[in-house]
Amino acid sequence: MTIWTPRLADKGPRYRALAEAIEAAIADGELAAGTRLPPQRRLADALSVTVGTVTRAYALVEQKGLVEARVGSGTYVREAASEASPFVPSAGSSLEEDTIDLALSLPPPSPRRQAALASALGAIAGDGAALDRAVNYPLGGAPAPHRNIYARWLARLGLPVEADELLIDQGGMNGISLALGALLSPGERLAAEALSYPGLISAARERDLRTVALPFDDDGIDVETLAARFDRQPFRALYLMPDHHNPTTARLCESRREALVALARQRDFWLIEDGVMLLPQEERGTPLYRLAPERTLFLFSVAKILGGGLRAGVMRAPPALHERLAAVQRHQVWAPPALTALAVDHWLASGAADELLDWQFEELAARESIVREQLGDFDIRLRRGGFYVWLTLPGEMRAAPLIEHLARRGVRVTPGEAFCVGSTAAPQAIRLCFSAAGSREQLAHALEIVREALSRPAPALWQTL
CA triplet 422, 48, 79: central angle to 5 degrees? Predict the structure, then answer.
């Protein structure tokens, strides 16, 4: 039987030529959504290349989100919708005024943020030296006072760091980009939990990195399994969220933290520790950067506290990496905006950030009670001080038709598929960010709609793929 057989370019590695041919065929419509790619051995024979060449090409286009591997079935061209970045709202979502968006991980709305920002901008406007810094090119990295203010604030949060360990960046996503740019070259392997932050998945694809999906449970990554996987597929760095895994809310237990650090030293790989989602101190474990300071990059952002629009954060990194990280930052953005840095300085130094965080934890506790009241009869996971709940669907219910149904009822949530690393099978689960609702009343209304949908007898709709 005739199979799809592309004509490969004569220059460059054969696997890249095949990957480019697949990408072009998908773009041209020659390989339509849902099409199964040829079995690897048959295509290798047809092209007179090794099976390994085809395997590498398939992995490359999968990392770009163009195809998906299904265990025991083959590799298929993805639907166009699945290529979209899962953490960006759809274009139509803002047009529906009555839509309650529980898809994005946003802090609870509060006029406190606008008032604190107005105060910070007023203070800057009255300070000539600050205005001069705000409009001139930043030279020589972040000023020492800025790093000192961050260091003192992080210490109050239970995250002690030295000021000279810090690199000021533009938030969590920028921190991920800087870390990947400094640590990995295209084609190298990056490991992460099998379900992980969609921004990390997108950043890995953009840099042409090969991802290694790691199994995990309620106590985080199984380090023995991790060691075996490393021996088969050595990777350069491991990205993880030890305190509050996105999306399942799992926390890496203390014994596994110690075992992970020991393994990282033994096998010599880097740890990228994402601490952007800040929980109350008693809900957190020992930071990995405290256990292995020489090989851990710790990412932090003010987005989940002060507001995502500020695009401000900080990375704690070993001094040996600072020059390389700074070079990547200069290449990408030159330097974070000085005006944003000055505003954040004012919030942190004045105590306004601490007051806002105290209020936020109280508000989240009230919202958590609403979640448990509405969805407590279902399989849910959430953490005190967190923004979201991970809900495993009951029975034979499927995520895709449920999400479509909820969207028609005016509620947006995120499917488990959005968090899948590599060829990880999509779990029949959804993530709901209860922090994002405009009010507690709006949240209760949205969760009533979700509960009603989950409680329905399983119609044929729920089983459709």
Answer: 30
Can you list the domains of the chain with their CATH numbers?
14-82 (1.10.10.10), 85-106+354-463 (3.90.1150.10), 114-350 (3.40.640.10)
pTM higher than the cut 0.90: no
- Residue 416 near residue 246 (C-beta atoms within 8 A): no
- Contact predicate 380/389, CB 8 Å: yes
Please write the tens of the pLDDT for every residue from 261-310.
Answer: 999 999 999 999 999 999 999 999 999 999 999 999 999 999 999 998 99
Q: What is the 3-state secondary structure (H, E, C) of the chain?
A: CCCCCCCCCCCCCHHHHHHHHHHHHHHHCCCCCCCECCCHHHHHHHHCCCHHHHHHHHHHHHHCCCEEEECCCEEEECCHHHHCCCCCCCCCHHHCCCCEECCCCCCCCCHHHHHHHHHHHHHHHCCHHHHHHHHCCCCCCCCHHHHHHHHHHHHHCCCCCCHHHEEEECCHHHHHHHHHHHHCCCCCEEEEECECCHHHHHHHHHCCCEEEEECEECCEECHHHHHHHHHHCCCCEEEECCCCCCCCCCCCCHHHHHHHHHHHHHHCCEEEEECCCCCCHHHCCCCHHHHCCCCEEEEEECCCCCCHHHCCEEEECCHHHHHHHHHHHHHHHCCCCHHHHHHHHHHHHHCHHHHHHHHHHHHHHHHHHHHHHHHCCCEEECCCCCCEEEEECCCCCCHHHHHHHHHHCCEECEEHHHHECCCCCCCCEEEEECCCCCCHHHHHHHHHHHHHHHHCCCCHHHHCC
pLDDT, tens only, 31-84 = 988 888 999 999 999 999 998 899 888 888 887 778 887 756 788 888 654 444
